[in-house]
Write a structure and sequence with these properties.
477 residues, 30 helices
């Protein structure tokens, strides 16, 4: 039995160190339930709790004493005390509720979710997550459907954590009466395929009413969640109409929802939205194509590479480069096809992409040599960079053979830039191969006056004024 002196000491909390607290706890020969209830009254006294430092000392003493009394009948007094206690005492009592867990009294802890105090609701939710069972799930299913329920956000998260896909009826009820933020929270849970995969049809049925919501944020989340758990036929039945919605964010959500569907019908839909725009929708189309990452995406991706807006072309180039580096898309044939097209923009894009493509089996770079004679100087220069990056010293025999054929001066200068790396590559030949005109590959390039190139090369930063020659690729980089 606790003495009056011990009660006064607990009330004053004069301890200054941990050894003093241990000594006070040791003074209790045996702690019983009535002793803890008397100490609990002092612990929840608001006047005493005003001194936070002393209150922390009281909580440490109470916790040490209560750990020796695992009495289930203390569960309800602890829960009631949590509603009246300060934040420090609540945390101490919450840690004790686990050891005195009484499933028959979980309803009392669930009722704390109705409180106006968000901190109290959060603590109650954490305890219920640790000890809650079927009775808590059944109670939460009813509570989340109440119109003026303050703790709906905490209850929804708790319900999904405890019940998984069995929480669908409660989430559907919350979608009817909840606020916009609460509706979006319910929709995120319903659209989680990992959680709702066992009853995807039930999740789809619960989301359908939200597709008629007038709030844009709720509608956008409803579209995204529906796409995460539906099948392709359901997408075209319920979501396809949102591709032409007045709000671009809703359209973007509908476009991103096609990531799971790789059929020709989906690719054609993405092509249509790529043409229709606006740009944030076009960017969503490119993200979706990147997520699909099959050979079927090449036609719309090539179309994006030739788009009239430079930001779209740049984004499409980034997508193609990432897919190539990741090995998810074979771009060899695509690059060659683009280089042979008549569109200068496409050729330049393909030439830029060529340097980022892996070619361990020499499937691409031998075909790139023919583009050293392309009419566009940008294409020629980028092809040079790609050949040096991909092929390295293996390109020398091909270039030597290529230089024996008659070409214009610009093509010969491009070939010279490639062969200028022979010494750096450690080629055994002391002199570069002779050309048909008697000159050598390493001879300085001098554009003829009639070519219209002399003045442009003379003022170019890539032309070395000191040597009047083209620098080596190492210098050019």
């Amino acid at each position: 039995m606790i003495s009056r002196e011990q009660l006064e000491t607990f009330k004053e909390a004069p301890w200054k160190s941990a050894p003093e607290i241990v000594a006070f706890v040791s003074s209790f020969q045996k702690t019983a339930r009535p002793d803890l209830l008397r100490l609990l009254e002092l612990l929840t006294d608001k006047a005493l709790g005003a001194d936070a430092a002393r209150q922390r000392q009281r909580c440490a003493v109470f916790t040490a004493l209560a750990q020796n009394v695992p009495d289930r009948t203390l569960f309800l007094p602890y829960v009631k005390a949590m509603a009246e206690a300060d934040r420090v005492a609540r945390s101490a009592l919450a840690s004790l509720l686990v050891q005195v867990n009484d499933p028959g009294r979980h309803w009392a802890l669930s009722e704390l979710l109705r409180s106006d105090d968000e901190d109290l609701r959060g603590i109650a939710s954490r305890v219920l997550r640790a000890i809650g069972g079927r009775s808590v799930v059944d109670q939460l299913q009813e509570m989340v459907g109440e119109e003026d329920f303050e703790g709906r956000r905490q209850a929804v998260d708790l319900l999904v954590a405890l019940a998984g896909y069995r929480a669908i009826p409660g989430l559907a009820a919350a979608l009817v009466v909840g606020k916009p933020m609460e509706k979006r929270q319910c929709l995120r849970h319903l659209g989680d395929p990992n959680m709702m995969g066992s009853d995807a049809e039930g999740a789809v049925a619960a989301i359908i009413p939200a597709l008629a919501d007038l709030n844009e944020a709720v509608l956008q989340q409803a579209v995204s969640s529906f796409c995460n758990v539906c099948v392709e036929d359901q997408y075209y039945e319920r979501i396809y109409r949102f591709l032409d919605h007045a709000q671009p964010n809703v359209v973007r959500a509908a476009v991103m929802g096609l990531q799971r569907f790789h059929s020709p019908r989906s690719i054609m839909t993405l092509e249509r939205k790529l043409r229709a725009g606006p740009n944030n929708v076009r960017f969503a189309v490119l993200e979706t194509l990147e997520a699909i990452a099959t050979n079927d995406i090449l036609p719309p991706l090539v179309e994006a590479l030739a788009h009239k807006q430079i930001v779209v072309r740049a984004r499409a180039s980034e997508v193609m480069a990432r897919l190539s580096r990741a090995g998810r898309l074979n771009l060899h044939r695509t690059i060659i096809w683009l280089l042979r097209s008549g569109d200068v923009g496409l050729k330049r894009t393909a030439a830029d992409l060529a340097g980022s493509v892996k070619d361990p089996d020499a499937e691409l770079w031998p075909k790139l040599i023919e583009f050293l004679r392309d009419d566009d100087w940008w294409v020629r220069e980028r092809v040079v960079d790609a050949l040096i990056e991909i092929a390295g010293p293996k390109i020398s025999p091909f270039i030597a053979k290529y230089l024996k054929e008659p070409h214009d001066a610009a093509s010969r200068s491009t070939s010279f830039c490639v062969c200028g790396t022979r010494r750096r590559w450690g080629c055994s030949s002391a002199r570069p191969p002779k050309t048909r005109t008697g000159g050598c590959v390493s001879a300085p390039f001098r554009p003829p006056p009639h070519s219209g190139m002399r003045e442009r090369y003379r003022t170019s930063s890539r032309f070395s004024r000191a040597r009047r020659t083209w620098p080596t690729p190492a210098f050019r980089r």
